[in-house]
Amino acid sequence: MKKLLFLLSILVLTISCSSQNNIADRSKDNTPIHAQKNDDGEYDLDVLDSQFTYFINAIAKPMNMYSESYLKSKNQFLVSEWNSYYFSGRYRNIIESSIDYDPNINYGIKFEYKLYQVFAFVKWKYGLKLNGLSAID
Questions:
Q1: Rounded to the nearest 5 degrees, what angle is found at the Cα of 97, between the Cα atoms of 93 and 98?
Q2: Residue 131 lies in a domain
Q3: Number of independent structural domains in the chain
Q4: What digits encode the pLDDT tens for the residues 28-62?
């Protein structure tokens, strides 16, 4: 089931994403998601799950509650944890692609916030425990 394909095809309007159904497929095509800039020169995320909009508007803390450095730090940790789950095959019914995230790139606070909220959304919707998220995120 491709529960998270929609979440991981989020990293920019033009994303190179490969969805794998099992570990054997991963060895053939292990293409991580790469972030790219849109026409305006900004990084953006598109989440293809209608519940994500509800989550952002009704459940998630507002963006002004976070600093960009906090989000960047958390995202670095969460992406690392996410990718370790992906490569180990753990949660393969949820995590279907790795994320190529470079903490040295200035993605901007909007991107950092949305990426962070993707992890919070996955925790909220699927119950996936990520160590980088606190109980209140």
A1: 130
A2: no
A3: 1
A4: 345 566 677 888 888 887 788 889 999 999 999 99
